[in-house]
Write a structure and sequence with these properties.
Number of strands: 17
InterPro entries: FAD/NAD-bd_sf, FAD/NAD-binding_dom, Ferredoxin-NADP_redctase_2, Pyr_nucl-diS_OxRdtase_2_AS
Strand content: 15-25%
Radius of gyration: 29 Å
Number of domains: 3
Number of helices: 9
CATH class of the largest domain: Alpha Beta
CATH architecture of the largest domain: 3-Layer(bba) Sandwich
Helix content: 25-40%
Keywords: Disulfide bond, FAD, Flavoprotein, Oxidoreductase, Redox-active center
Distance between the termini: 58 Å
GO biological process, one term: cellular response to toxic substance
CATH topology of the largest domain: FAD/NAD(P)-binding domain
Structural class: alpha/beta
CATH superfamily of the largest domain: FAD/NAD(P)-binding domain
Shape: elongated
Pfam families: Pyr_redox_2
Family: Belongs to the class-II pyridine nucleotide-disulfide oxidoreductase family.
Largest sheet: 5 strands, parallel
């Protein structure tokens, strides 16, 4: 994985003297796909998600991490070293840190993909503050949707929860809070059929060049922002246009862990999420570690993922040391250097016994006449 968890793990592993290889596709990842500014990551200000990932990759590469633009299809953990199968070849490794993340589930309706970053989001904690005193929709009926609605109700003008059934799947306490909240309204038995948007006007000529120019933006493609949605009553089939400034999709996440089925154990209550041992990042298979959203069904934040990536690298480094495994290239280099030093010591002992230069009448032991003249 090439998100905050994977790259943090690579940085820590490289600085520990290991040889981390980051295997990740060029696109994908929640932070990579975040076109708006990242505002909740310490030290980052007025910078987009892709720019954050680019900076992380540059830092990891500076310490020696190597990047492989591939997707992992399967892992063979039946024998050592492990074999990681990608779309084009096989990689052998002593340890694996799984940091492939969890993708948000989407509605797959018209306007949804085009306006991600323009009012369509799957993270109220990340993007809610951008819609201060605005009208927003939350789609979903589980705990995640309830939590998002409560978070948004603190800053938004109004919050409307859209749910396709007549009861919430969420816990009773959360559902009751939503029902009783004065700033939250509920549309039962309703689905979102389409997300509507308007095209942002281009800045006047001469104003487009600024220090805040987003180099990650798609040049030439008009940027659209959410202006409303088309809702459908599932009981009557009637459709209605509703105005809003943002649509938050909260219908769950799917961890990108299908390639590990029958390899590691998963959380029984949270399908797809890797089960870790205690408070560590260790999995049910020695030598395989899990970091970020693949093992986090609660927080799913870039900053918490980065922290767990660092923890996974520390766990992996300790385990490799315990097993007597590590960086073979560095170990071979150290052994070769030790042999050369031993040879030098042997040569010194020989020179102490006999010095042809001194026997010939030289005045400086062990130094040629031409060098003596220069000194």
């Amino acid at each position: 994985g090439g998100g905050p968890a994977g790259i943090s793990a690579a940085i820590y592993a490289a600085r520990a003297g290991l040889s981390p290889l980051v295997v990740a596709p060029p696109m994908g990842g929640q932070l990579q796909g975040k076109g708006v500014d990242v505002e909740n990551y310490p030290g980052m200000h007025n910078v987009t998600g892709p720019a954050v990932i680019s900076s992380m990759r540059e830092q990891a590469a500076s310490f020696g991490a190597v990047f492989e633009v591939e997707s992992v299809t399967s892992v063979d953990a039946s024998k050592r070293p492990f074999k990681v199968h990608t779309e084009s070849h096989i990689i052998e490794t002593h340890a694996i840190i799984v940091a492939t993340g969890a993708e948000s589930n989407w509605l797959n309706v018209t306007g949804e993909y085009e306006m991600r970053g323009g009012g369509v989001s799957s993270c109220a904690t990340c993007d809610g503050a951008a819609f201060y005193q605005k009208d927003v929709l939350v789609v979903g009926g589980g705990d995640a949707a309830m939590e998002d609605a409560l978070v948004l109700a603190r800053t938004s003008k109004s919050v409307t929860v859209i749910h396709r059934r007549d009861t919430f799947r969420a816990s009773k306490i959360l559902a009751q809070r939503i029902i009783e909240h004065p700033s939250i309204s509920i549309r039962w038995n309703t689905t979102v059929e389409e997300i509507l948007g308007t095209v942002l006007e281009s800045p006047p000529s001469g104003e487009s060049e600024s220090e805040d120019l987003d180099l990650d933006a798609d040049v030439g493609i008009p940027q659209k922002v959410v202006s409303g949605a088309i809702l459908k009553d599932v009981s009557t089939g009637e459709e209605e246009n509703i105005s809003c400034d943002a649509v938050f999709i909260a219908i769950g996440h799917t961890p990108a862990t299908s390639f590990l089925v029958d390899v590691v154990d998963f959380e029984p209550d949270h399908p797809g999420y890797i089960k870790t041992v205690g408070r560590t990042t260790r999995t049910s298979v020695a030598g395989i570690f899990a970091a970020g959203d693949v093992a986090d069904n609660m927080y799913r934040q870039a900053v918490t993922s980065a922290g767990s990536g660092a923890a996974a690298a520390l766990d992996a480094e300790r385990w490799l040391s315990e097993e007597g495994l590590g960086n073979e290239a560095a170990e071979f280099e150290a052994e070769l250097l030790a042999e050369l030093m031993a040879d030098d010591e042997g040569s010194s002992k020989v020179s102490d016994q006999y010095n042809a230069y001194e026997e010939a009448g030289g005045k400086m032991a062990g130094v040629r006449e031409s060098v003596r003249a220069e000194l």
